[in-house]
Amino acid sequence: MLNLGIDNLWVVNLFGTEIWITRTMLNTWIIMLVLIVLAVIVRIKLRSFREIPTGFQNAVESVIEIFENFVDNTLGEKLRYLGPWFFTVFAFILFSNLSGVFGLRPPTADWGTTFAFALATFILIQIVGIRYRKMDYLKNFFYPNPIFFPLNLIGELARPISLSFRLFGNVLAGMIMMTLIYSLTPKLVQIGLPVFLHAYFDLFSGALQTYIFCMLSLMFVKGASE
Amino acid sequence: MNFNIDPLLSALPEGRVFALDKQTLITIVIQLLNACILAGILGFILYKPVREFMKNRTGRISGQFNDAQNKLTEAEALKAEYEKKLAEIELERIKILEAARVSAAEKTRDILAEARAEAEMFKKRAAESIAYEKERLQKETRLHIIEISSLMAAKFVEKEIGTEDHDRLFNEAMAQLEEASWLS
Amino acid sequence: MHESLAFLLAMAHFAAAIALSNGIFTTFGQGKIVSTAIESMARQPEAADSIRGAMFVGLAMAETSGIYGLLIAIIMLFANPLVNIFIQNMG
C-alpha cells in the first residue's frame, strides 16, 4: 500500500550485465513521448504560422521567446547555442515535476535522473570553462595557493551533488507527502483536499524547483565562461 | 523479548527510494542518454525551427520597416527639393516682375521724353508760325496804315500845305508808327 | 540478534528525525531572506522583479542544508547501509 520506492519493472540482461528497467525510466519515456508529440504538433503547425500570430502560435512563440530571452540575459550572446539544451532540461524537468498530478511517479524523484542532469551541467561547466578561458580556468583551482586545490576541487564537485539533491529532495518530499496522504487518509477525504496539496507540491514547488535548477545551471555555466 | 525479523523484512518495500549502487549508475547513464536524445529531438523539431521562423519574421518586418523608413527619407528629400524649387520660383517671379517694372518705367520715361520733345517741337513750330503771322500782320498793318495815312495826308495836303511840309510830316508819322508797331 | 536489529532500526529512525530537525535553522534562514527581500521590494518597488529572482535563488541556496538533512533521513530510513551489513553478517 505505502509504496514510496521505485518499482523495478523488468530486468534486461545486456552483455552479462543486469539492467533494471525501473518505473523512472518508463515514466521518462512517457514524458519524452509527450514532449516529442507536442514538438511534432508544433512543427506541423509551424508551416501554417503567419506573420501575425494568433492563438496556438502565440502560445508557442511566447514560450520560446521568453525562454530565449531568459537564456540570452543569463548566458549572453556567445553561449547562445546552448539554448536548446537548457530548453530541453527546462521542459523535461517541468513536465516530470508536473507528472505527479497525473498519478505518475515523477522521474525527478529518482536521484538517478536529477544527477544525470546535474552531471550534464557539470560537464558543460568544465567544457565551457576550458574552451573560453583555457589555462586560466584550470589555474582557478589553485587560486589563492596550491594548498587550496583539494578544497576547490571539493567545492567544484559539490556543485552537481547539491544541484541534484536539491531537486531530488524537493520532488521526493512532495511525492512522499502526496503518497502519505493518499494511503493514510480515508477515501472520503481524498475527494477535494488533494487538489490544493497537488497545487502546492506539484505545480508550485515543481515549477519553482525547475526554475531554480535551470537558473543555477545557467549561472554556473556563465560563471565558468568568464 | 522475542522479535521476529521476517515480518519486518518482508514489510520492507519492494523498490528503493535511494541507493548508491551499480543500478543507480546505470540509471544515471540511461537518463543522460535519454536527456541527450530528447535535447536533440526537441532542439531540431521545436526550438530551432520556431526560432528560425521568428528570426526570419523579425528580419522581414525590420526590412519592411527599414524600407518604409527609407521611402520616408526619400520623400522628405523630395519635398525639401520641391520646396526649395518653389522658393526659387518665387524669387524668379519677383526678379522678373522687378525687371518688367524697371523696363516699363524706362519705356514710360522714353515715351514721356519723346512726347515732351514732340510737344516742344509743336510748341516751337507754333511759336514760329505765330511770330511769322505777327510779322506778316505787322507788315500788312503797316502797309494799311501807310496807305490810309497817305490817303489822309494827300487829302489834307491838298487842302493846306505844300509838298515840303507834306514830306516831312509823312516821314515823322512813318517813324512814329514804325516805332510803335515794333514795340507793340 | 533480533533485539540488536530492532535497536539499529530504532536508532536509524531517531537519526532521521534528528537529521530533519535542521529544517528549523533552514527555515529561519529562509524567513530572514524573504523578510529582507520584501523590505527591499517595499523600498524599491521598481526593482521588485530582479529582487524576486535573486530571492528565489537565495532561497534555493539556503535550502541546500535542509535538503541534505532530508537526504540523510532518507538514507537512514530507506537505504541504511548498516542494516544491510548487519543482516549479511548475522543472517
Structure description:
The complex is a heterotrimer of chains A (226), B (184) and C (91). With 226 residues, chain A is mainly alpha-helical. Chain A is built from 7 helices and 2 strands. Chain A has a two-stranded antiparallel ribbon with strand order 1-2. In chain A, a hairpin with a 2-residue loop joins strand 1 and strand 2. The model of chain A has no long low-confidence stretch (mean pLDDT 85). Chain B has 3 helices and no strands. In chain B, helix 2 packs antiparallel against helix 3. Chain C has 91 residues and is an all-alpha fold. Helices cover 89% and strands 0% of the residues of chain C. Chain C has helices at 2-20, 23-43, 48-78, 81-90. In chain C, helix 1 (2-20) runs antiparallel to helix 3 (48-78) and helix 2 runs antiparallel to helix 3 (48-78). Chains in contact: A-B, A-C, B-C. The interface between A and C is medium-sized, with 17 and 14 residues.
Shape of chain C: rod-shaped
**How large is the share of residues in beta strands of chain B?**
under 5%
Helix % of chain C is over 70%
Question: Which CATH class of chain C applies here?
Answer: Mainly Alpha
Named at the architecture level, the CATH assignment of chain C is Up-down Bundle
Helix content of chain B: over 70%
Order of SSEs of chain C, N→C?
HHHH
Helix-strand category of chain B: mainly alpha
- In terms of DSSP E residues, the strand content of chain C is under 5%
Low-confidence region ranges of chain C:
none
Helix/strand order of chain B: HHH
H/I helix tally of chain C: 4
Give the N-terminus to C-terminus distance of chain C in angstroms.
9 Å
Oligomer: heterotrimer
User: What about the largest sheet of chain B?
Assistant: none
Bulk shape of chain B: rod-shaped
**Number of helical segments with 4 or more residues of chain B:** 3
Find the count of extended strands of chain B (DSSP E, 2+ residues): 0
**Integer tally of domains of chain B:** 1
List keywords for this structure.
heterotrimer; A: 226 residues; mainly alpha; 69% helix; C: mainly alpha; rod-shaped
Summarize the structure.
Chain A has helices at 23-46, 55-75, 83-98, 111-133, 135-139, 149-184, 194-225; strands spanning 8-14, 17-22. By secondary structure, chain A is mainly alpha-helical. Chain B has one domain (20-183).
